[in-house]
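Final report, Chapter 2: Outcomes

The project's central promise was a pipeline that accepts a single protein chain and returns its three-dimensional structure in a standardized token representation, suitable for archiving and comparison. That pipeline is now operational. To close this chapter, we reproduce one record exactly as it appears in the project archive, with the input sequence first and the structure output second.
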Amino acid sequence: MGFHGDVLFFRKSDHDFAFGPYVEALTVAFETIELGGGVSFLIPVSEHFPLVLSAGMHARAFENNGWEPGLHARLWMGSRSYNFHSLYGLAVGLFVEGRYGLGDGQQADILGGAEIDLEIFALPFVLLYNALR
């Protein structure tokens, strides 16, 4: 479970490429904490379902083993349409990610999952607020 946030620049429509930084904070069964960041590159494979490739570094803390550096790469695909009326664009998709520890543990992980934008949980409250105005 974790949070992954990115900012993609130079995109003016659904057909444009984009790139930018990202940061993330993850945990595995609340036994580890992983903090990282890197660069993402958006490829407009489809108008409404682009592909995002990411690569970066992370630091993983184990219960009694201290911090260990690592590398990771990610492939994400989902709905990430361009918002013509705001800087914020809603994103929902699936990802596959590889992580490799460079320390003594040399832990190697392949992760997969669904990513849901936190704004989706706020939308019912926004709708209610606008209805009551």
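Archive annotation: The two ends are 36 Å apart (CA to CA).
This record, like all others produced under the grant, will remain available to the consortium after the project formally closes.
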